[in-house]
Amino acid sequence: MRRLGIYAQMIFRYRPREFWNEVLGDSFTLRGVGHFRLSEDANRRMYEEKQAVLDAELARLHIAPGPATTVLEIGSGVGFWTEYLRERGVTRYTGNDIAPVAIERLRARYPDFTWVEGSAGDVVLPAATFDLALMIDVTQHITDDSAFARAMHTVWQALRPGGAFAVTYWDPGMNRLLATKLRLNRIEKPRPLSAYTALWGAEVTVLASAVSFNDKFLAVVRKA
């Protein structure tokens, strides 16, 4: 019931930092970042299915995260993808989240990694540094277009030339139910992949797009 109360407040006044800090403070689990109506086990199965999709696409594109890979993750949440990368040998990892509680708990869990708190559009990251960036199940929560543009610029300038960016997007064409459209109008915003690539211009090469990823699509792009 508490989660429903948090959502009710958000519908009328969506403040991402406060919302996610309250949600994750209440439930620092996959239910917190996934579907709270499902059990933790059901959420884990869903995340493992998404992990298999990402694994397959990275393998197909010959992108193999490991000890030599410098990785950026925007929206680390409760650390599912952090652990995914650690298990593949990644040691040069920088994680970001808008929720202070997420950064506090993940920093304690992964003290050897670098953590940056704040909105993705406002944090300062080193330029041309990262071989691989991940932004999974995050961008639809950036409902303000100017904040979205700043976030995409933040990631893009932090990628080194030749670096890859794996990002999920919620295409407007996927949202046909009125109830979904009304909810998205208030707290989430779908955008086609073209809204992303337009911000990167001629520097972007799309390696994979429209890859089914639960209720979204996965794209992988490379910085020229």
Kindly describe this structure.
By secondary structure, the chain is an alpha/beta fold. It has one domain (2-223): 3-Layer(aba) Sandwich (Rossmann fold), CATH 3.40.50. It contains 9 helices and 7 strands. The longest helix is centred in the N-terminal third of the chain and has 21 residues, at 40-60. It starts with a helix and ends with a strand. 33% of the residues are buried. The model has no long low-confidence stretch (mean pLDDT 91).
**End-to-end Cα distance:** 48 Å
Arithmetic mean pLDDT: 91
- Rg calc: 17 Å
Given this structure, which CATH class is correct?
A: Alpha Beta
Low-confidence stretches: none
Largest sheet: 7 strands, mixed
By secondary-structure content and strand pairing, the structural class works out as: alpha/beta
Instruction: Give the overall shape, derived from the CA principal axes.
Output: globular
Helix content: 40-55%
The CATH architecture is 3-Layer(aba) Sandwich
Tally of discrete structural domains: 1
Main-sheet strand order equals 3-2-1-4-5-7-6
Helical region count? 9
Provide the succession of SSEs: HHHHEHEHEEHEHHEE
CATH topology: Rossmann fold
The CATH superfamily turns out to be Vaccinia Virus protein VP39
Q: Give me the count of strands.
A: 7
Topology:
Blueprint: H1 2-12, H2 16-26, H3 30-33, H4 40-60, E1 70-74, H5 80-87, E2 92-97, H6 100-109, E3 114-117, E4 130-135, H7 145-158, E5 159-169, H8 178-187, H9 193-200, E6 204-213, E7 216-223
Parallel strand pairs: 1-2, 1-4, 2-3, 4-5
Antiparallel strand pairs: 5-7, 6-7
Helix pairs in contact: 1-2
